[in-house]
Structures are given as C-alpha cells and as structure tokens.
Amino acid sequence: xxxxxxxxxxxxxxxxxxxxxxxxxxxxxxxxxxxxxxxxxxxxxxxxxxxxxxxxxxxxxxxxxxxxxxxxxxxxxxxxxxxxxxxxxxxxxxxxxxxxxxxxxxxxxxxxxxxxxxxxxxxxxxxxxxxxxxxxxxxxxxxxxxxxxxxxxxxxxxxxxxxxxxxxxxxxxxxxxxx
Length: 179
Hints:
The chain is α+β, with helices and mostly antiparallel strands. Helix content is 40%, strand content 16%. The relative contact order is 0.06.
C-alpha cells in the first residue's frame, strides 16, 4: 500500500485521538470539581436546582434545598460548584457591590458624548427642518413643449421635468418623436 491511500486513515485516527483526549480532560476537570466540594458550598445540579452542600460521601451528596428539605443526590448529578457571591446572587438576589462600581457603563450612549445642555439643545433642534440641498422642482420654470422634430430633445427633457413634478411618469402612446 502506498502512503497516499493510508493518509486518510492516519488523519482519521489522529482526529479521534484528539477528540477523546479533550473529552477525558473535561471529565477529569468535572471529577476534580465534584471531589473538591465542601460542606457549606453552593451547587447547581444538572437538573438546574440550586442548593447548599450539607454532607459529602464517597458516591453521594446530601444537599440542603431549604428549611427542613434535605435531598440525597449522586455526585455525578452535580453540574457546578458555585462561588459564594454567585450563589447568593442567584438564590438570594444579593448583588455584590455592583452599584458602588465606578466603571459601570450607562445604558444610553449619548451621555458619553454630550453634556446635559447640548442634549437639550439637540432635542430642541429636532423640530427644525433640515436643508439637504435639494431644489424644489415645482419652483423651476418649465418650457412649453416643442412641436418640431429639431426640438425633440428639448421636448423629451420637458416631459421628464413634468414627470418629476407630477410624481408619476407620463404615459405615451408608444410613438417616439425623437429619431
């Protein structure tokens, strides 16, 4: 067999090795997290329930889900061990000094670029009309239509100007006078 025919198999085996290696690392990290659980730490189960660890045994964990509610779970059912701040924020709704943080970004970006006075001026100037530099086509004089064949170009320009002022293009009978 040549190297060219073996190359796809070698690449496939290498990819399988890399995928199983990363999966083993994830499993090892999850096992370490579960083994490092201590009584009193907050956890989230794989089902989404938040509780506090009461006891840690070899294969099971006793969780305190509320006053008088103790639940026995398998260690494999613990999805995450939470920090105290994160657990208190989720379960009890206690924020950790977020309001005293001076680097909070405001919801409105205009406060980053304008002062209060310029914002009030901008709101007042919204009522004014803005000149975009367009000329009003109704104010321009329109020449009378030409009837001779030598002025056919002028007649076409006149019809185009009238079509702009009317808002709809003029319909012709299909005959074109410009030749």
